[in-house]
Specification:
By secondary structure, the chain is an alpha+beta fold. It is about 30% helix and about 20% strand.
Length: about 70
């Protein structure tokens, strides 16, 4: 399964990784690479919990175009 994740840095320089198609699925790391590895583990755990609870594994996400 391939999922999109977002990466951002907080005010302390910690990398935050989030999977938008799984509500609440967020992890972090001191490096970009660490955050990506950590979010992979978080995704697996979130998918397991959602499956156990009978929720859909992911929610729909879509890109929209805005003009700024």
């Amino acid at each position: 399964m391939k999922l999109t994740v977002t990466l951002d840095r907080d005010e302390d320089g910690i990398w935050i990784a989030e999977c938008p198609s799984i509500p609440g699925c967020v992890s972090q790391g001191s490096t970009r690479e660490e955050a990506l590895e950590n979010v992979k583990e978080a995704i697996q755990l979130c998918l397991d919990v959602r499956a156990e609870q009978g929720f859909p594994l992911t929610i729909e996400t879509q890109q929209v175009e805005v003009y700024a």
